[in-house]
């Protein structure tokens, strides 16, 4: 009985550890090595869990928005939603609800709500599953105002969806589909890098008078923790943020990858004495051309990095625009460090993602061009 | 609530012995760990049945807020997914297509009321409005169809044969009920007194077009008349209408939303999505399917194998009816009752209006390629909503040949001299030669609007760039300026004379 109780307690602690992924959970609960070794003695090293490919860097505590609280990214999202719901005086469980399992229905339904003027925040469980709703998003939501001559619109629609690699998500829990939507005038596409950014950007998306897609880096849901204001606040859309100034190279990314390039900037400084300007794009569509170009004019070199596949990825749009606007300022070809042109693999994730070593290597080649 | 497992107060018949409880906790924990996001799922349920709900509830009370009373003593099915009895005979349910859902009608083909208790007893004014709306629509269709043939507008879709479905349903709604259409519901707008000038403006894409010249003809929209702008993709409006209905319910607006679509569009995934959402989320919506026999060239025999669209409703839990779409009173009665109940009971209704598409799908179609002229003539001559209503009016003494002439004349407004306009070759052409087929109803008010629409300029090309977003982003402004500069140099190669400066 005591053994059973201990076993039960251990299992419940695992649950409480709340980490994602079976291997992480076991390690997080302080499992003794002895328990596992018999199962994996032949490959203990191979089966050790992978370390995350990034280190989340929290921003300093914001002071201008009042009292803050320690929140991870999903708590920050929840806080934004709570703030938004608080504006609606009507209570009831018909405000936050499940729907039948149908993404085209979810988005279509959300559009219909927004057409009447009410605020609709639709969740697609993983960005990988947003494609059934592609017609509703591209052919309907994005075009509602334009095609009606501004008689009708669905501006009060926001779609939010977990996005990006998570360590073990494979083909259908890891995708970053922002490039598909970047090609669609009429919607806005936003990706935050941190809890503080997430809350402010999500509130801006909800209040924005255009339909918005808000992609939330799922790997940061628990891994990213920082001080986030309790009260609502807005971070403007279509404004990139220079999070670190530099003079030799411009690094651009969004979401999780911002933390990768931050680390690359530190490596470049330490190993190569190169000063990097790090930009978080934040809004993919419409994107802040001026901030990026201004930076490239200063540095003469640009590296863009994203997890999504290289061909047709959003780095190609940035690259194309920057070479048009800043051609004579460029000291080296623009570098794109992206996922390969394959579906997102499972066991090969450490090799697939554009990690800091690939970014560092590309940066080094640019410097030596 | 149906479909939910286990109640907090469930009567487990297993003893609440300590060992049983511990085993239960272990089992639950195991189930939890390996299926973290979906509660106990399938792993847990057999364990629960074994050990009883009460022990479980003690450990995880927050999970059991919404479940049924669980009695494990009966041999009744306990599946959360369906409320049904067991059967021990293997039998497939036969879809009944030979004798499908019956078609509700009020008038026979000669316009006589069959069952007097179904007569809606509408006042003469209202029924005359039905007639005039349908005939005005018919006239406008003839003129605009011909105008496309002559290259004056780029495209058109007629509503021949379906006027009854539009007017009967529109008349049964409140003016503020929101309408989501497909593209063959102009009669709804006509009934709501949308001016001819604006129909034409949209078809011509001229400066008076509320849509600012952005869409193909017949993509009408009107905010004041609560008619959401038409879009080309099929069935996309269905889940949107459901969302709008949900919002109306939450706002206690006492409004219904009506959503029109054809039997072809009903095959789209969006239709399935819309039906399921409407029933599950309890939305005050009327789904109005115009089953007109064809989706362009695809006949219904190649569109579905079941008993039309009405038979699908019960599958979703939706109250459904099939009506004679060419009987304007049947359409009216069904829509009226559906509206009343949808608002009162917050549930969807499905009306399948059987009708026939007398015209081609559009000006890009020649339906003689896939159906016989005889078939079309039957419907045009023997079962036309306008004829049936006229016969009814005449039998009531509310209309006669004199009034018919007067209606045609009345709409023939006084004009100074023969109306005429310039053809593409640059010659003056008398108005009477515009239509190759003689049009019969209210010809000249339509003609007037038509001529005015043709004379007007198109909107300024800078309107390409506005309303993409509420505000114009910097990149778009640059593109707008780029076009302006381009036109300064190369303007002669563009039809700028037809566009507002």
From TrEMBL, chain A:
Cofactor: thiamine diphosphate
Signal peptide: 1-19
Enzyme Commission no: 1.2.4.4
GO biological process assignments: branched-chain amino acid catabolic process; response to nutrient
Predominant place of localization: mitochondrion
Catalysed conversion reaction: N(6)-[(R)-lipoyl]-L-lysyl-[protein] + 3-methyl-2-oxobutanoate + H(+) = N(6)-[(R)-S(8)-2-methylpropanoyldihydrolipoyl]-L-lysyl-[protein] + CO2
InterPro entries given in the database record: THDP-binding (IPR029061), Transketo_C/PFOR_II (IPR009014), Transketolase-like_Pyr-bd (IPR005475), Transketolase_C (IPR033248)
SMART domains named among the record's database cross-references: Transket_pyr
General function of this protein: Together with BCKDHA forms the heterotetrameric E1 subunit of the mitochondrial branched-chain alpha-ketoacid dehydrogenase (BCKD) complex. The BCKD complex catalyzes the multi-step oxidative decarboxylation of alpha-ketoacids derived from the branched-chain amino-acids valine, leucine and isoleucine producing CO2 and acyl-CoA which is subsequently utilized to produce energy. The E1 subunit catalyzes the first step with the decarboxylation of the alpha-ketoacid forming an enzyme-product intermediate.
Complex and partners: Heterotetramer of 2 alpha/BCKDHA and 2 beta chains/BCKDHB that forms the branched-chain alpha-keto acid decarboxylase (E1) component of the BCKD complex. The branched-chain alpha-ketoacid dehydrogenase is a large complex composed of three major building blocks E1, E2 and E3. It is organized around E2, a 24-meric cubic core composed of DBT, to which are associated 6 to 12 copies of E1, and approximately 6 copies of the dehydrogenase E3, a DLD dimer.
Protein's UniProt name: 2-oxoisovalerate dehydrogenase subunit beta, mitochondrial
Protein source organism: Bos indicus x Bos taurus
Gene behind this protein: BCKDHB
Automatic annotation (TrEMBL), chain B:
Record keywords: Metal-binding, Mitochondrion, Oxidoreductase, Potassium, Thiamine pyrophosphate, Transit peptide
Principal place of residence: mitochondrion
Cellular location(s): Mitochondrion matrix
Cited InterPro entries: Alpha-ketoacid_DH_E1_comp, DH_E1, THDP-binding
Names of required cofactors: thiamine diphosphate
SUPFAM superfamilies: Thiamin diphosphate-binding fold (THDP-binding) (SSF52518)
Enzyme Commission code(s) on record: 1.2.4.4
Reactions listed under catalytic activity: N(6)-[(R)-lipoyl]-L-lysyl-[protein] + 3-methyl-2-oxobutanoate + H(+) = N(6)-[(R)-S(8)-2-methylpropanoyldihydrolipoyl]-L-lysyl-[protein] + CO2
Swiss-Prot/TrEMBL GO biological process terms: branched-chain alpha-keto acid decarboxylation to branched-chain acyl-CoA
UniProt superkingdom: Eukaryota
A Pfam family the protein falls into: E1_dh
CDD domains: TPP_E1_PDC_ADC_BCADC
One GO MF term attached to the UniProt entry: metal ion binding
Domain Dehydrogenase E1 component: 131-415
GO cellular component: branched-chain alpha-ketoacid dehydrogenase complex; mitochondrial matrix
Similarity comment: Belongs to the BCKDHA family.
Subunit structure, as described in the record: Heterotetramer of 2 alpha/BCKDHA and 2 beta chains/BCKDHB that forms the branched-chain alpha-keto acid decarboxylase (E1) component of the BCKD complex. The branched-chain alpha-ketoacid dehydrogenase is a large complex composed of three major building blocks E1, E2 and E3. It is organized around E2, a 24-meric cubic core composed of DBT, to which are associated 6 to 12 copies of E1, and approximately 6 copies of the dehydrogenase E3, a DLD dimer. Interacts with PPM1K.
Functional summary from the UniProt entry: Together with BCKDHB forms the heterotetrameric E1 subunit of the mitochondrial branched-chain alpha-ketoacid dehydrogenase (BCKD) complex. The BCKD complex catalyzes the multi-step oxidative decarboxylation of alpha-ketoacids derived from the branched-chain amino-acids valine, leucine and isoleucine producing CO2 and acyl-CoA which is subsequently utilized to produce energy. The E1 subunit catalyzes the first step with the decarboxylation of the alpha-ketoacid forming an enzyme-product intermediate.
Designated name of the protein: 2-oxoisovalerate dehydrogenase subunit alpha
Organism: Bos taurus (Bovine)
């Amino acid at each position: 009985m005591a053994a059973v109780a201990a076993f039960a307690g251990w299992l419940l602690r695992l649950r409480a550890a709340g980490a994602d992924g079976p291997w992480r959970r076991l390690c997080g609960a302080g499992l003794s090595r002895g328990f596992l070794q018999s199962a994996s003695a032949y490959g203990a090293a191979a089966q050790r869990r992978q370390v995350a490919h990034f280190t989340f860097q929290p921003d300093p505590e914001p002071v201008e928005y009042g009292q803050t609280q320690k929140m991870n990214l999903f708590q920050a999202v929840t806080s934004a939603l709570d703030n938004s719901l608080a504006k609606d005086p009507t209570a009831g469980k018909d405000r936050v609800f499940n729907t039948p399992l149908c993404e085209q229905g979810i988005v279509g339904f959300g559009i219909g709500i927004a057409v009447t003027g009410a605020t609709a925040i639709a969740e697609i469980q993983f960005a990988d599953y947003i494609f059934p709703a592609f017609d509703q998003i591209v052919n309907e939501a994005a075009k509602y105002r334009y095609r009606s001559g501004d008689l009708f619109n669905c501006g009060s629609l926001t779609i939010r969806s977990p996005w990006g690699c998570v360590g073990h998500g494979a083909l259908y829990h890891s995708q970053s589909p922002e490039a598909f939507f970047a090609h669609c005038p009429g919607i806005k596409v936003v990706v935050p890098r941190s809890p503080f950014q997430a809350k402010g950007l999500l509130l801006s998306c909800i209040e924005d008078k255009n339909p918005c897609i808000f992609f939330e880096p799922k790997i940061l849901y628990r891994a990213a923790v920082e001080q986030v204001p309790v009260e609502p606040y807005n971070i403007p859309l279509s404004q990139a943020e220079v999070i670190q100034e530099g003079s030799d190279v411009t690094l651009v990314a969004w979401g999780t990858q911002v933390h990768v390039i931050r680390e690359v900037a530190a490596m470049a400084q330490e190993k190569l004495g190169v000063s990097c300007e790090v930009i978080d794009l934040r809004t993919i569509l419409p994107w802040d051309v001026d901030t990026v170009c201004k930076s490239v004019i200063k540095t003469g070199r640009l590296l863009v990095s994203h997890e999504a596949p290289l061909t047709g990825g959003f780095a190609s749009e940035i690259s194309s625009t920057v070479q048009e606007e800043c051609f004579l300022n460029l000291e080296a070809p623009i570098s794109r460090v992206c996922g390969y042109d394959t579906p997102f693999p499972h066991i090969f994730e450490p090799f697939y993602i554009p990690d800091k070593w690939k970014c560092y290597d590309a940066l080094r080649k640019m410097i030596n061009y | 609530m149906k479909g939910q497992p286990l109640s907090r107060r469930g009567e487990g018949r297993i003893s609440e012995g300590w060992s049983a409880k511990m085993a239960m906790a272990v089992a639950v924990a195991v189930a939890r760990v390996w299926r973290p996001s979906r509660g106990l799922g399938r792993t847990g349920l057999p364990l629960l049945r074994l050990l009883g709900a009460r022990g479980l509830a003690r450990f995880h009370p927050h999970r059991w807020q919404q479940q049924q009373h669980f009695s494990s003593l009966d041999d009744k099915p306990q599946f959360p997914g369906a409320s049904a009895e067991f059967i021990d005979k293997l039998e497939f349910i036969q879809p009944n297509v030979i004798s499908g859902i019956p078609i509700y009608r009020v008038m026979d083909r000669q316009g006589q009321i069959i069952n007097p208790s179904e007569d809606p007893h509408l006042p003469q004014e209202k029924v005359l409005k039905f007639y005039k709306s349908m005939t005005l629509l018919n006239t406008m269709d003839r003129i605009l169809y011909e105008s496309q043939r002559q290259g004056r507008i780029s495209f058109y879709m007629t509503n021949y044969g379906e006027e009854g479905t539009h007017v009967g349903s529109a008349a049964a709604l409140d003016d503020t009920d929101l309408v989501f259409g497909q593209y063959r519901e102009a009669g709804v707008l006509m009934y709501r007194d949308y001016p001819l000038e604006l129909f034409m403006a949209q078809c011509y894409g001229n400066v008076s077009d509320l849509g600012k010249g952005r869409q193909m003809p017949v993509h009408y929209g009107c905010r004041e008349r609560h008619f959401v702008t038409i879009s080309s993709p099929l069935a996309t409006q269905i889940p949107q209408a459901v969302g709008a209905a949900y919002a109306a319910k939450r706002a206690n607006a006492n409004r219904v939303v009506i959503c029109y679509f054809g039997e072809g569009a009903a095959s789209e995934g969006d239709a399935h999505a819309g039906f399921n959402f409407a029933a599950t989320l309890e939305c005050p919506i009327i789904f109005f399917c115009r089953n007109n026999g064809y989706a362009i060239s695809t006949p219904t025999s190649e569109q579905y194998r079941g008993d039309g669209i009405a038979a699908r409703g019960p599958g979703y839990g939706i109250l459904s009816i099939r009506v004679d779409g060419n009987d304007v009173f049947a359409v009216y009665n069904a829509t009226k009752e559906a509206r009343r109940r949808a608002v009162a009971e917050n549930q969807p209704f499905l009306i399948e209006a059987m009708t026939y598409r007398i015209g081609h799908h559009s000006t890009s179609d020649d339906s003689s390629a896939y159906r016989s002229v005889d078939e079309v003539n039957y419907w045009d001559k023997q079962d036309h909503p306008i004829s049936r209503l006229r016969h009814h009016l005449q039998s009531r003494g509310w209309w006669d040949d004199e009034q018919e002439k007067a209606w045609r004349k009345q709409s023939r407004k006084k004009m100074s001299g023969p109306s005429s306009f310039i053809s593409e070759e640059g010659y003056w052409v008398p108005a009477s030669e515009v239509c190759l087929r003689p049009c019969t109803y209210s010809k000249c008010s339509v003609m007037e609007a038509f001529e005015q629409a043709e004379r007007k300029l198109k909107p300024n090309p800078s309107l390409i760039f506005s309303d993409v977003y509420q505000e114009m982003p910097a990149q778009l402004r640059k593109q707008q300026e780029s076009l302006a500069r381009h036109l300064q140099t190369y303007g002669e190669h563009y039809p700028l004379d037809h566009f507002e400066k």
